[in-house]
Amino acid sequence: MKKLLTAASLLALTTLPLLAEPLKIGVITTLSGPAGYLGEQVRDGLQLAIDQEGGKLGGVDVELVVEDDGLKPGNGLQIADKFMNEEGIKLITGIIFSNVAGATVPEVVENDAIYISPNAGPSNLAGAGCNKNYFVVSWQNDSLHEATGAAAKALGYKKVVALAPNYQAGKDAIAGFKREFGGDVTEIYTQLEQTDFAPEMAQIRAAAPDAVFQFHPGGMGIAFLKQYVQAGLSKDIPMIVSEPSADGVILNAVGEAAVGLKATTHWNADFDNEANKAMVAAWAAKHPDKPLTTYGQQAYDVGQLIASALKKTGGIDDLDAFRAALKEADFTSTRGDFKFGPNQHPVQDWFMVDIVAGPDGKPMWVTKEKLRDDVGDVYAAECKM
Known about the structure:
Elements: H1 2-15, E1 23-29, H2 36-51, E2 56-57, E3 60-68, H3 73-85, E4 91-93, H4 98-110, E5 114-117, E6 134-136, H5 141-154, E7 159-165, H6 168-181, E8 184-190, H7 198-207, E9 211-214, H8 219-230, E10 239-242, H9 248-254, E11 262-265, H10 274-286, H11 294-313, H12 319-328, E12 339-340, E13 346-357, E14 363-375
Parallel strand pairs: 1-3, 1-4, 4-5, 5-6, 7-8, 7-9, 9-10, 10-11
Antiparallel strand pairs: 2-3, 11-13, 12-13, 13-14
Helix pairs in contact: 2-11, 3-4, 5-6, 8-9, 11-12
């Protein structure tokens, strides 16, 4: 009898349905060094979207596999290779910096995996280098700073010193700013991960511009803004920046000296729509000591985009179906209006924000007027898919 029961038990075990493995999403991002908080925001924004659905996206169990690229293109490429060839991951996201994206994204999309960017949108991947497997949820690099150029023009500035690091995103930043500003621009290129800007402060003083535009994300932005104030330049020369140069972490680090800055953005915590209110409240409950930045918001929207596609496909085994579902962008963005252009980069609105002292005395963004409506990017016409 004992042997018969054992055999029956074994038979029952072999006929039980196998539990499906969760869909793995590879996250390559920057988690170390002065820019490490940017990657933390992306990781946490994605996880927040997953947590809100009880560990799922679009009804599908998912798992984030997160690795630090250390802001090194070679690291990003190695991680992508491991994700795809050793772990069988076909859906990848997370990259912050355009130099890492430039080395990594082509390898991903050419190996028939999907890459969805929560941040970097370099120009060389938006035009002739576009790919059916490549989607950008944040913005194309140039369009991010075109909004700031439009704002500087609207504010009546004629002569501007523009500074950015000497890599793809920095070059795109100044190109985008100049495109919409149309005035006299003196270009100064700094180094990626630079922290001492004394020579640049002297150059700004000598140029005596109407205003300064600068793009320095992460720790670079904290250092630049602090040194600008310490050099006394903020008293005489106003500064206008794009969203990465005035995120909540930078503003907290600089303090009251940041009050009075002008900035531009595609999203702010004060946007009055239900999706945004829900995300902001959920973030505050989970991360009470972390300001929510555009990096977190963009990653959360990546999660919502993936969920919208998985809801229709149930998985990614059929990449053609999953890709088509992604392209529909059938989700409610926290930023409001959102759709993909022909190169699978965003078409969206842009806003001016004032940086003011909040109720707690800390600097915060307050949304002002809309600057640009339903804007794509200048490279979309070059994309042939």
